[in-house]
Specification:
It comes from Intestinimonas butyriciproducens. Keywords: DNA-binding. InterPro entries: Homeodomain-like_sf, HTH-type_Tx_Regulator, HTH_TetR. This protein has about 220 residues and is mostly helical. It folds into two domains: about 1-55, Orthogonal Bundle (Arc Repressor Mutant, subunit A); about 70-215. The protein is built from nine helices and two strands. Strands 1-2 form a two-stranded antiparallel ribbon. β1 (about 210) and β2 form a beta hairpin. α6 (about 90-100) runs antiparallel to α9 and α8 (about 150-175) runs antiparallel to α9 (about 180-200). It is elongated and about 65 Å long.
């Protein structure tokens, strides 16, 4: 985590350092990222940088914290919009992604770019506390009434599969901007498969529940 000295910097100086860091981490693999290039671009002395962060890893995980906060808030809002329906979430999220891409929203692009240039990197370890993939902030918002099983591990798996379907089509859309309509169809079909595997037959559905608790 950054030191208190970092947070006491003028906002313009903090933003300049963060923008320089994003530029480096989204164009160079993590192993090859240079702190020297970041501080030169930001116009910050090397000694000052180490008053703000312990090193490259500390800075990188601070950036990922911004990614986490961005997506957690977006997913919370979407889950509320769909009344906790986990399987309606990916389609709504994909449509929102397309709109934000047109408006030039940088965060999704930055996230996907980091994944692309760092194959095998598990960015999502920053999204929740091990051993869970599903963030604690989202679990209580998910309607589990029709799930075959309502314990945390099962809901976790459903969230993981749904999220991976979404991430896959978003990455493909970045690579092939003319295939958004096709990818939307692919996403719908994949989510339907996940949904069928996770839910009870309609006639067996019990009273509505959220986060494993009856409402």
């Amino acid at each position: 985590m950054p030191t208190g000295t970092f947070f006491r910097l003028p906002e313009e100086k903090r933003m300049r350092l963060m923008e320089s860091a994003w530029e480096e981490f989204t164009h160079i693999s993590y192993a090859d990222v240079s702190i020297n290039k970041i501080i030169q671009a930001a116009g910050i002395p090397r000694g000052s940088f180490y008053q703000y962060f312990d090193g490259k890893e500390d800075l990188f995980f601070y950036l990922l914290g911004d990614v986490r906060n961005h997506f957690i808030q977006a997913l919370k809002s979407l889950l509320l919009d769909v009344d906790g329906d986990l399987f309606s979430l990916p389609m709504l999220a994909y449509d929102q992604f397309l709109r934000r891409r047109e408006r030039g929203d940088l965060m999704p692009r930055r996230c996907i770019q980091i994944l692309r240039i760092n194959p095998g990197m598990d960015m999502f370890q920053t999204f929740s506390k091990p051993p869970f993939f599903l963030p604690d902030e989202l679990f209580p918002l998910i309607d589990t009434a029709q799930f075959r099983c309502r314990d945390r591990n099962f809901v976790e798996s459903a969230f993981f599969l749904s999220t991976m379907c979404l991430i896959s089509v978003i990455m493909d859309t970045f690579a092939h901007t003319d295939r958004a309509a096709l990818q939307r169809t692919v996403l719908r079909e994949r989510i339907e498969i996940v949904k069928r595997g996770c839910l009870l037959p309609c006639q067996e559905a019990p009273q509505q529940q959220q986060g494993g608790k009856q409402v």
